[in-house]
Amino acid sequence: MITIDAALRQARQTIATAEARQLLGQLIGRGHAWLAAHGDDQLDPAAAQLFFELVERRAAGEPIAYLTGTREFYGRIFAASPAALIPRPETELLVDLALGLAAAMAAPRLLDLGCGTGCIAVTLALELPQAEVTAVDLSPAALALAARNAHTHKVELRLLSSDWFAAVDAQRFDLIVANPPYVAAGDPHLERGDLRFEPRMALAAGADGLQAIRRIVAAAPTHLAPAGALLLEHGYDQAPAVRELFAAAGFGEIAQEADLSGILRVTRGRLTPRGPAA
Ligand code: GLN
After folding, report:
1. CA 82 to chain centroid
2. 83-96: per-residue pLDDT in tens?
3. Which of 65, 177, 184, 236 has the most CB atoms less than 10 A away?
4. Which of 85, 88, 112 to mutate to test the pocket of ligand 1 (most atoms within 8 A of CB)?
5. For residue 181, how far is its CA from the centre of ligand 1 (angstroms)?
């Protein structure tokens, strides 16, 4: 038998203290305060074994979100799994901007392309009870995860298996959002940290990282209602290229917003009357 304190001490030799607490807390269903107050309690041997397995996997680089199966996004807990990208704090900017645009719409029809965990679509559905939210993904496992998150958070999403717009019918949307893959295929970051364990199809998009964004921007006008808006997250150095793509597709009112690190991270545009005959 081993005490909670001793187990945490042992784990700290290979992983960060906070992560050790998080893994153990999650495993035995207790918070930090409880762990701190019960350091001398014995840990059940089966729990101890599971804990040290998780510690070993974490030490080998597996993302903490995949080991705990959860990640917080926009103040709520979402199920996370290797089926989808781990929700990231910078994507909360996309949600904030979408909420700002949707605020002026009575019953907005929203579309989230490549929904992954569903964290964007579920958050929008929760924050905009009048909205009708469609979310698509090409990966069946990601769709199942999004369905699970929608169920947990008690919102209804229309979930479609689709390669971007391919399976989206003639319905028009007031707002289309996406956090598409935008990392260049040869980017060394793909071989570092959490990214090594995340689905490549959710991260990498061709030699310049713009392959998915190009397809989405070009096709979006035919899926937007009059005055509809498109909102995309993109890479730290892609703002100029994405602005050009929006302009070439006929979008007006193009604006780009910086994330908390000061990086232009999201581009939005609106279909203006001078845009293409949608
Ligand atoms: N921002 C992510 C990263 O570089 C990439 C997410 C994405 O491709 N949509 O870690």
Report:
1. 12
2. 999 999 999 999 99
3. 177
4. 88
5. 7
